[in-house]
Design goal:
The complex is a heterodimer of chains A (968) and B (125). Chain A has 968 residues and is an all-alpha fold. Helix content of chain A is 73%, strand content 2%. The radius of gyration of chain A is 39 Å and the shape is elongated. Chain B has helices at residues 2-20, 25-45, 71-102. The chains are: A mainly alpha (968), B mainly alpha (125). Chains A and B meet through helix 25, helix 26, helix 27, helix 28 and helix 29 of A and helix 1, helix 2 and helix 3 of B.
């Protein structure tokens, strides 16, 4: 339970910082963030007794158990140590940021992101399910992006953030793929199971695939060569972020992952080569680059890269002792590097610059900060009596040992010593150039002074930790490190000693060589470094960053342009043609590959009446296509013919429900089209008769494509029809429809019962469409060029005008009077028929949908008969209410099953005796069907009314235009 | 029996595709209606065709007494009819609004977002 609290608390705090507080005060946001991190720290600390000596806290919450995805949180000694690091340094960073952030910055947002990041990081550390881990992994990338781009008006921050997100995002994607492969190998996504099946994984043929993918994830996150270049660019972030994310925690996530999966993946030759090459080259290149940085934070960033390389190298060796050293160094590095970043932040804050060429002699102005930075740098350089020394000694000892006999292994001691010397040189440079020498001359802020005490407190605390761990390691960090090591290595936990003095041995000599060599190196290069450009010689103009930007421009710009100009088109028609052609090819190729050979066409047992009906249907379809250009009304009538053919086909071929629905839908479709065509432009044969060659060839091409598609579908459906019927689930529905669904009309039972959820979605779609149509046409008037009265009405009005005994509009009003009266009288009849269709739906053809459209037709006829005004004076339909009632009814029926303890949309059926009517089916599905009915009525009427109202608005447009015409 | 039926389906599709390849949206609209019919008939072939045996359980029986038509494609087609109807209604209103706002029903002339002679953006940093 504490684990859930621990992971959720930072996210809650993050939301609270921006949503609840709604304050601009940096103090309030900082206090809240401080409180949250402190509680998280305490929560972590109290869990220590349960994780000591290989203990484990575990919590399982089911998420998608069918897919092996669960919210599993687990904490062992290693996770505990890391969680302490995250929360502890988090607390110090919040304290520091309280003073660092200026009043002008949107401080609550900063703390919100920082807390959310802390939550994601804790999520990575505590995940007991590898997919969950990957989710939190992505979250850290995203919050890192947001934090780097915090000063988003700064271009460097935006570029750095984008680069970090691209690199770590690609890594995260690879990691997810790798973890999926890993889960596939093991058969479970549970971390404990994965860790326990190391031998299985290493022997599996997919081992290398999983390894490479996971390594890409880990190495990008930990900024290892060749993915290192995002980290220096991320230094555009505010310094607390650099201290927290980019030195202490997030970049450690990569090596954390390597340690986490160390028992399952390490120890093979592939592991040693891949991890080793990355680690060793990062170690040496990072240290080399760091020497030549002029930006304080740049120096620290490259130094971080180098130290992460050191940890990676240790992990590559595959020996338990090296893993111990790696875990230990992760902690040590976080302590001294975070404090150094904070010191750099103070220097930047007080002097206004981080350029080492401008800084000098600051010890006089910042005596305490200077001293603290010196101690921390000494730890970074590996000076005895500080924590960095102990883990570096352990590294040297491991470097000397032979693990896997190869060139890499043999050069390691020399590379390690050289990198050690480099790190001494840059540490020395950091201290000497900033704090010693003549007083500074051109500082943006001329009078630097010590910061407030509480801003310095985090540094003091961390430096104290460096000293304590460095002097009495086994008493301070010893027990915690031990439980972490046990939880990772288990039975393979080696004997190790954290003593500072092991006698004079090879590692000590290597340390001495590095210290002396580094100091000598600095003395020699001092003058060059004081003036040189930013960046190391030889590599200054050749960076991963440049390559990255090249690739980005090429992929996202040049290739995209090329594809667009060569394959794309800016016209709709060619695109549609491509879609149709691709569809035809997809069908044809797969049929061909499947070895399809149609049976010979059989003309026997063709019922002549059927053939005649279908011939009419075919004639209608082809005629519609032919007439559509100039004679839209004819095309519409022919289209109706095609629809009726479909309808008759359904009736005859045992699908009465389909026939009813098809018929009513056909009616409404035709009305809709008629209403729509009234407002759409006409095309007259006389105007548009210039038939050019290109138009002809285009038409011919379309014709060919249409014929091919038609022929393809012909073959396809013929193939289906000549196959035997597979024994699918249809018989299940036939058997259970009455016994379990309580209805005799199987199609209706499937719709409202077996597949009720689908129907629910379907009516939701209908509702959405109706609302969209309503929104599109509301407050909308037809264009002026289509508001002219139809020709017939003009002739009729002219007829009135010629005769003195008639007033204008008389003929129009009385036009088709008898049919209108009949239509008005038909209303109750059709409404009753709709109710009848609805009630019989469960047992006989009918149902909510057909009944709903029938009801809508009843309303529609009133509009047709009397016009919009007449109909609405007498009938208030309120289609939105019908729709709302329908949707709520359907959902409530479904949820009613919950009350009785059944899953959503479980139905119950029975018959009740109603006086005068007889036995009436009263399944709960009937209520559901009532919802369908109501929604369909509302939606259909809403669409029709929206279109019909255009004619009412037309009069208003005409009214508005009339005075204007007179003025002209 | 099968042959004329599948011929009808093929012709429906051919006419629908031809209409939909037009650049005038009204014709595309008519094509969509026809395509809906074609697709429904194609789905219908999955249940094969049987005459005059609707999937309705007669009174006094718990399961169909004789061989009946396959109810599953019918239920799916019923859904398909509804969805294609809503799709059609939406498309119709969209075409109508597009015509009113852009003054044309020719898909190739609707160039509000990408004017015809709009130069390409610069192709380099």
């Amino acid at each position: 339970m504490i684990l859930v609290l621990l992971v959720c608390l930072p996210f809650v705090g993050s939301l609270a910082a921006v949503v609840l507080l709604r304050t601009d005060s940096r103090v309030l946001a900082a206090r809240m963030a401080g409180a949250v991190t402190f509680v998280a720290l305490v929560l972590t600390a109290v869990l220590y007794p349960s994780v000591r000596d290989g203990g484990k806290v575990r919590l399982d919450l089911e998420w998608l158990p069918q897919l092996g995805l669960n919210v599993t949180l687990r904490m062992d000694g290693f996770a505990w140590l890391f969680a302490m690091l995250v929360t502890g340094i988090g607390f110090l960073v919040v304290l520091y940021a309280r003073y660092y952030m200026s009043e002008e910055d949107p401080v609550p947002r900063f703390f919100s992101f920082l807390l959310a990041f802390m939550g994601s990081m804790l999520g990575i550390v505590l995940s007991g399910n590898i997919i969950l881990l990957s989710v939190f992994w992505e979250l850290t990338s995203i919050f890192s992006f947001l934090l780097i781009s915090y000063w988003h008006n700064n271009a460097a921050a935006r570029d750095g953030a984008r680069m970090a997100l691209t690199i770590t995002g690609i890594g995260g994607f690879c990691l997810l793929a790798g973890l999926l492969v890993l889960g596939h190998i093991v058969g479970s996504y549970d971390l404990d199971v994965v860790l326990a099946s190391g031998d299985l994984i290493k022997a599996h043929p997919l081992y290398l695939t999983a390894l490479v993918l996971i390594l890409i994830g880990a190495l990008t996150k930990s900024a290892q060569v060749p993915f290192h270049f995002w980290l220096p660019n991320a230094m555009a972030a505010p310094t607390p972020v650099s201290a927290y994310l980019h030195s202490a925690t997030m970049v450690k996530a990569g090596v954390f992952l390597l340690v986490r999966f160390w028992p399952a993946l390490s120890g093979t030759y592939e592991w040693f080569m891949l991890v080793g090459i990355a680690g060793i080259s990062t170690l040496i290149l990072g240290a080399y680059f760091a020497m030549f940085q002029q930006d304080l934070k740049g120096l620290l960033a490259y130094s971080t890269i180098s130290h992460l390389g050191l940890i990676t190298t240790l992990l590559s060796l595959g020996s338990p002792l090296a893993a111990v050293a790696a875990i230990f160094h992760m902690m040590n590095h976080a302590t001294f590097k975070a404090s150094l970043f904070m010191a750099a932040g103070i220097i930047d804050h007080e002097t206004g610059t981080r350029d080492m060429r401008r800084l000098s002699g600051l010890l006089k102005y910042l005596p305490i900060t200077g001293t603290l930075a010196m101690v921390a740098s000494a730890a970074m350089a590996g000076v005895p009596l500080l924590n960095g020394f102990i883990s570096k000694e352990m590294f040297f000892a491991e470097a000397v040992e032979t693990h896997a006999d190869s060139v890499l292994d043999r050069i390691l001691p020399y590379v390690a010593t050289l990198a050690g010397a480099f790190s001494v040189a840059y540490s020395l440079r950091f201290i000497h150039m900033v704090f010693f020498g003549p007083p500074p001359t051109d500082l943006p802020k001329p009078k630097p002074h010590e910061p407030p005490h509480w801003m310095r407190f985090p540094i003091e605390f961390l430096v104290l930790a460096c000293l304590v761990v460095g002097i009495i390691p086994s008493l301070s960090i010893g027990p915690f490190l031990h439980s972490a090591v046990i939880s990772v290595l288990g039975d393979r936990t080696p004997e190790y000693s954290l003593a500072i003095w092991h006698g004079i041995n090879t590692p000590l000599i290597m340390s001495l060589i590095a210290l002396v060599g580094g100091a000598a190196l600095y003395v020699v290069m001092k003058d060059y470094l004081a003036k040189c450009d930013n960046g190391p010689p030889l590599f200054r103009h050749l960076g991963g960053q440049r390559i990255f930007e090249r690739v980005l421009v090429t992929v996202s710009w040049k290739w995209a342009r090329w594809l667009e100009s060569n394959l794309g088109t800016r016209h709709l028609q060619p695109q549609l043609r491509l879609v149709a052609a691709a569809g035809f090819l997809a069908g044809a190729v797969s049929l061909y590959l499947a070895g399809f050979s149609p049976k010979p066409l059989a003309f026997k047992d063709v019922d002549p009446i059927f053939a005649a009906v279908w011939a009419i249907g075919a004639f209608c379809a082809l005629g519609a296509a032919y007439q559509a250009k100039y004679h839209r009304l004819a095309a519409l009538v022919l289209l109706g013919g095609a629809g009726i053919t479909t309808c008759i086909t359904f009736v005859w071929l045992s699908a009465p429900d389909l026939a009813i629905t098809q018929l009513v839908v056909e009616i409404v479709t035709t009305v809709l089209l008629l209403l729509g065509l009234r407002w759409l432009p006409k095309r007259s044969e006389k105007v548009d008769n210039s038939v050019s060659f290109s138009a002809r060839s285009r038409r011919f091409r379309d014709f060919l494509l249409a014929i091919s598609c038609g022929f393809g579908m012909f073959l396809f459906s013929y193939a289906i029809m000549t196959q035997p019927v597979p024994d699918a689930i249809a018989s299940y529905f036939l058997d259970k429809a009455y016994s379990e669904g309580g209805g005799r009309n199987v199609v209706n039972v499937i719709l409202v019962d077996f597949r009720g959820f689908d129907t629910m979605g379907e009516i939701a779609v209908l509702a959405i469409v109706a609302l969209t149509v309503f929104a599109l046409l509301r407050r909308f008037r037809p264009a002026p060029d289509s508001i002219e009265k139809p020709e017939q009405q003009r002739i009729q009005n002219a007829f009135d005008a010629e005769r003195p005994e008639r007033s204008a509009g008389d003929t129009v009003r009385d036009y088709l009077l008898v049919p209108s009266v009949i239509m008005q009288w038909m209303f109750p009849v059709i409404a009753t028929f709709a109710v009848y269709l609805f009630l019989r739906g469960h047992d006989l053809p009918g149902g909510g949908f057909a009944a709903g459209i029938t009801m809508a037709i009843a309303f529609l006829l009133q509009y047709l008969a009397g016009g919009v005004r007449w109909a609405e004076d007498r009938l208030r339909i309120l289609p939105l209410r019908w729709m709302g009632f329908g949707l709520i009814m359907a959902a409530a029926t479904g949820m009613g099953a919950w009350l009785l303890g059944y899953p959503f949309l479980t139905t119950h059926s029975q018959y009740i005796e109603v006086p005068f009517i007889g036995k009436v089916p009263a399944a709960s599905a009937l209520l559901f069907d009532l919802g369908v009915f109501s929604l369909v009525v509302g939606a259909t009427v809403l669409i029709l009314i929206a279109l019909a109202h255009q004619s009412v608005r037309m009069h208003r447009v005409r009214g508005l235009d009339a005075p204007k015409a007179e003025e002209n | 029996m099968e042959f004329p039926f599948v011929l009808l389906i093929g012709l429906f599709f051919a006419a629908a595709v031809y209409l939909m390849l037009s650049k005038f949206l009204v014709r595309v609209l008519l094509g969509v209606v026809l395509l809906g019919n074609g697709v429904n008939l194609l789905l219908f072939t999955n249940g094969r065709i049987l005459r005059e045996v609707p999937p309705i359980i007669p009174q006094g029986h718990d399961v169909p007494a004789t061989l009946t038509a396959n109810p599953l494609p019918q239920a799916l087609i019923l859904t398909a009819i509804v969805i294609s109807f809503s799709f059609f209604a939406f498309l119709l209103v969209l075409v109508y609004r597009a015509y009113q706002d852009l003054g044309t029903d020719n898909g190739n002339e609707m160039r509000l977002a990408e004017p015809e002679d709009d130069p390409l953006p610069p192709t380099g940093y």
